[in-house]
Specification:
By secondary structure, this protein is of the alpha+beta class. It is 27% helix and 27% strand. The strands form three sheets. The protein has a seven-stranded mixed sheet, sandwiched between helices. The longest helix has 18 residues. The structure holds biotin. The site of biotin (BTN) has 18 residues, from α5, β6, β9 and β10.
Length: 320
């Protein structure tokens, strides 16, 4: 790690603290001029670092840039993080890593996606500097049927991370949307590649997009999409903390998929059970009442004609 990255790591772990040039120079065994050069270069990259004669350098708490050092400081296990300013889709980047022999828990995180996508190839608006767009490479060892739970684990992990960082309550709209005050603040897209020879899974990519800071969405999403923080409201800690919290919590639930540890929380957070829902699922379309979720996360619904069905995937929209 170069001097600039070392200093950034130190700053990120103690936002708002002031360091004198002499302190930093001593800590890293370099000259004060070298410290000054590294700080200048961080400022040029857009970090707000105040330099005052008596106090030295202060990394302002309001800095909210995603950096490897900023995220890694909260991660408790070895994983390779790559932070990009702008990519097409982080899922595509991780697929490339997977094909090139990447390891489980390799992650790509972006400040912006120009081709962010959701389920059914829908566009996922991924505005620069406001969200957290993460994809994680997985090499699941459990059964193909259980890979369905990757998305549900991620939904629980995201809910917990958002609540911890914002103190706001969120719920899950089956299967993979996280809602705050009725608006979608996160979407999850899991993609997998099967090995034709063995019939098994060679890898999966879980992609998570959270709208963290306030942004105005295009007209067609107004009333549907929302952000965790409102206009003029900022998290105590930056988006890096949310990204790390999601990765940590997702790992906890993912490693316990065979025990279904996530399930009780997933069900408790369901915004669908007991609600009137409009079901779009394959060739089924119609109004129903959502009755329950079974242990496979299938949604049990009673259609208005009395027919009871278990839905394994599909799109449910809720009539409010
Ligand atoms: C959905 O709402 O249908 C799922 C949206 C998933 C968006 C995330 S953002 C990170 C990753 N990269 C993508 O292109 N999509 C996922």
């Amino acid at each position: 790690m170069g001097l600039k990255d070392e200093i950034l790591k130190q700053f990120e772990s103690s936002r708002g603290t002031s360091y004198s040039g002499a302190d930093l120079a001593k800590r890293y065994g370099v000259s004060r001029a070298a410290v000054w050069k590294a700080v200048k270069s961080l400022q040029k990259e857009g970090f707000a670092i105040q330099a005052t004669t008596n106090r030295g350098y202060t990394f302002l708490a309001a800095n909210d840039r995603l950096t490897e050092a900023g995220i890694a400081q909260y991660i408790s296990f070895p994983c390779r993080l790559r932070v990009e300013k702008s990519v097409g889709s982080t899922n595509d980047e991780v697929k490339k890593l997977a094909e090139a022999g990447g390891d489980e828990w390799d992650c790509v995180i972006a400040e912006e996606q120009t081709k962010g996508r959701g389920r059914y190839n829908r566009k996922f608006v991924s505005t620069e500097g406001t969200g957290v767009y993460i994809s994680i490479l997985l090499r699941p060892k459990f059964s193909a049927a259980e890979t369905l739970f990757i998305t549900t684990c991620a939904a629980v992990a995201v809910c917990e991370a958002i609540e911890k960082i914002s103190g706001k309550s969120v719920g899950i709209k089956w299967v993979n949307d996280v809602l705050l005050n009725g608006k979608k603040v996160c979407g999850i897209l899991t993609e997998a590649s099967y090995d034709v020879e063995s019939g098994g899974l060679s890898y999966a990519v879980v992609g998570i997009g959270v709208n963290v800071l306030f942004q105005k969405f295009p007209a067609e999403l107004a009333g549907i999409a929302g952000t965790v923080f409102e206009e003029g409201e900022y998290p105590q800690e930056g988006r890096a903390r949310i990204a790390a919290e999601i990765i940590e919590r997702f790992r906890y639930y993912y490693e316990r998929i065979p025990q279904r540890t996530f399930f009780a929380e997933y069900k408790r957070r369901s915004l669908v059970i007991g609600k009137r829902v409009k079901v779009f699922s394959g060739n089924i379309e119609g109004w129903a009442t959502a009755l329950d979720l079974d242990e496979n996360c299938f949604l049990k619904v009673r259609f208005d004609d009395g027919n009871i069905k278990l839905l394994s995937s599909g799109e449910v929209s809720i009539r409010i």
